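Appendix B. Chain record.
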Amino acid sequence: MIGVPMTVEESDRLLNEKRETRTASDRHLEQNVCGQPGADGNGVSPVEERFDIELRHIRQQLQTERQISVVLRDQIAMLKKIPPPPPLPPPTIGDDLLWGINAIAAEIGRSPSQTNHMVENGRIPCGKMGGQWVANRRHIHDAFDRLTAIAIEEKDDA
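Structure tokens predicted for this chain:
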């Protein structure tokens, strides 16, 4: 029922409709088992008492649903006020560069000494700039992709 609030008048109308459309078993229970309506001296039959309890329960549910819908409405309004995050800056060439043997080693999952050996022998595409090894991350990945593709082709040919 969230989003469709029911007024107290509507809930009373529903309760009255329920009272008017009581089943035959309800009337039998009221007249034969519990005695005549109001037999206990309070003027209300057990069935009507049960309907009144149901009405109180429905009203409590309505109050809770109204509170939830108010909270949700407030949260939606608050979210609409939040500005969108600023756009991310465009990627730069520096985002793709690996500076130093340690960074290259971390990228390929090898130790710095193993990486240095591969770099010195030209197995990894990189170059020196200012006395420090620098490599392009994309070029390293491409080189290893080509290396594994050649190995797969050789294996298939054998």
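Further analysis of this model is presented in Appendix C.
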